[in-house]
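Sample entry (266 residues):
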Amino acid sequence: MREVLAVRLFTLFTLTCLVSGSIMYYNSNNSDLSLDSQQRDNLDTAFLAAEEEDASTNTPEQSTEKQPKNTPTDLIFLGTGGISSLILASLFSEVFRITVLISLVTPLISRSKNSHDLLTRGRLLGYLEANAGIHFSALRDALSLANGVTAYHLQVLERNGKIISWKDGKLRRYAISQISQSKLEKIRNPIMGTRLAILEVLSSSGKIGISSSEISKKLSISRQLMSYHISELKNSKYIDSALERKRPKWKLTDLGIEVLNSSNSL
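Predicted structure, serialized as tokens:
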């Protein structure tokens, strides 16, 4: 993965800056402390004499000295800023957090293999089979695993073709590779917004059903917009009329119940 390589190179760069700056800063301080009082006096005398000579020979414009660059401090700030940016990005984006874990943590875990690895992967596969489309953090919490352990085993399972994953905004979702294409499409494109609200209203009405006008009043949306969403839900076979009449009452189909449960779980 290019993202993994980029994170590793960026981390190496920031650590190099931080270590180099710290060493330079430490050495410069030690060199200053190693001078005894006599050397300091000699240096001060020579410096003052040089200043007086420059003041007598140079114009005011020429006597202006350039400020030395504080290279050690700049390197330390650059390294600290780089590490801080990785941490902040990981906090706000699950996708980036997984990339950082795979880049930096999983190589360490892979070297310490133990007998529990197969058991952990079996637990992950079983949970993903029952909860297709679950995102990384929810999966980690459900199985009480650490971030690095979860990322490592998911990476191994995906590399071996046991599972698949996809990006969903700031989240990354997972499912077993044997999942049917139709179910995968439903998970990747869950019912949301107004249509999800309509399905929830119909779910509470049971088999009796509820009319479009009653739904529009409950959700405070126009009849024209309600008519459009009802038509789309009917064409998708998520709802059906409870009674054959001119203005029917609507109820959920078995497929609609399945889609509603899937959307709510995501």
